[in-house]
Amino acid sequence: MKIFAIEASGPVAGCAVLEDDKLLGEYRIQNRLTHSQTLVPIMEELTKRLDLDLASVDAIALTEGPGSFTGLRIGAATAKGMGFALKKPIIGIPTTDALAAAAFGTDALVCPLMDARRGQVYTGIYEEKDHPVTLRPCCAVPAGEILEDLNARGREVLFLGDGVPAAMELIQSKLQVSYRIAPAFMNRQSPAVTATLAMARWRELGDKALINADDFRPEYLRKSQAERQLEEARAEHAMDALAAGRLLKDRKAQDHAGT
Question: What domains appear along the chain, each with residue ranges and CATH number?
Answer without folding.
Answer: 2-95+189-209 (3.30.420.40), 103-186 (3.30.420.40), 225-257 (no CATH)
